[in-house]
Amino acid sequence: GGWIGHGRAWRSTPVGWSGEPPLENAAGNAMADYDLLEDGFCPLPYARVLTADYDLLRLDFPQLEDRSVSEIDAWLLKHAAYMSEGQSKRLQKGGDH
User: Fold this and answer.
1) What is the DSSP letter of 14?
2) Per-residue 3-state assignment (H helix, E strand, C coil) for 17-77
């Protein structure tokens, strides 16, 4: 499997796929897409939680079961407010976004 798109969805490769033809996504050839897998992440210091399904988060993450909305927001920011260094570079002047 691999990441298809801009880091938004995981899709496994099709059953029986041998590599040909190349996989395609809305951004073009997924096999050449720079969002396949990246490492090296930087924090987003101005990130904010816009919306969250707090009941579902409490079910999926037992450590949040007794936490308030503001505590869950802080947890989300601590654990998810990051972007890859590659994406950050692409957003700079001269990048492709």
Assistant:
1) P
2) CCCCCCCEECCEEHHHCCCCCCCCEEECCCCCCCCCCHHHHHHHCHHHCCCCHHHHHHHHH
End-to-end CA distance of the chain: 25
Q: Tell me, yes or no, if the pTM score tops 0.85.
A: no
Which residue ranges in the chain fall short of pLDDT 50? 1-8
Enumerate residues 6+ apart whose C-beta is below 8 A from 13.
1, 2, 23
- State the residue for tokens 């033809």: 21
Q: Which residues make Cβ contacts (< 8 Å) with residue 86, sequence separation at least 6?
A: 34, 38, 40
Question: Quick one: which of 89, 88, 60 has its CA closest to 76?
Answer: 60
Q: What is the predicted pLDDT for the residue at 11?
A: 56
pLDDT reported for residue 88: 81
In tens, the pLDDT along 44-60 reads: 999 999 999 999 999 99
